[in-house]
Amino acid sequence: MKWLYIKAKGRDRSISAKTRSWKQGEVAAQAERDHHDPVQEKLREIQVAEKLAAEKRADQKAQNITVSDALAHWAAGLKGRKE
User: pTM for the whole thing?
Assistant: First the structure.
């Protein structure tokens, strides 16, 4: 079993990589390093912000109506009025 030895915030701890493979242990170790890396953390925040912005743009695009639809809606409203 491969173990990851981590020193963070003044504390030592060890966690299991849950693998016998050295290569998979290295992948787990890199993921743990990335988790504590401030640059990687900022990149994750940027990715989340971009994803939310893309979803917001998609929602706004779905709410857009065409000029012909707006004109038809306006004309229907005029027919219902009494003058």
Answer: 0.48
Q: Which residues contact 12 (CB under 8 A, 6 or more apart)?
A: 5, 6
Count of residues making up the chain? 83
Secondary structure (DSSP) of 60-72: HHHH---HHHHHH
Find tokens 């743990």 and name the residue.
32
Site of tokens 């707006």: 70
Q: What residue segments make up the domains of the chain, in order of their start?
A: 1-36, 38-83
At CA 61, angle to CA 57 and CA 63, rounded to 5?
Answer: 120
In tens, the pLDDT along 6-35 reads 888 888 988 888 889 989 989 998 988 888
- H or E stretch at 15: strand 11-16
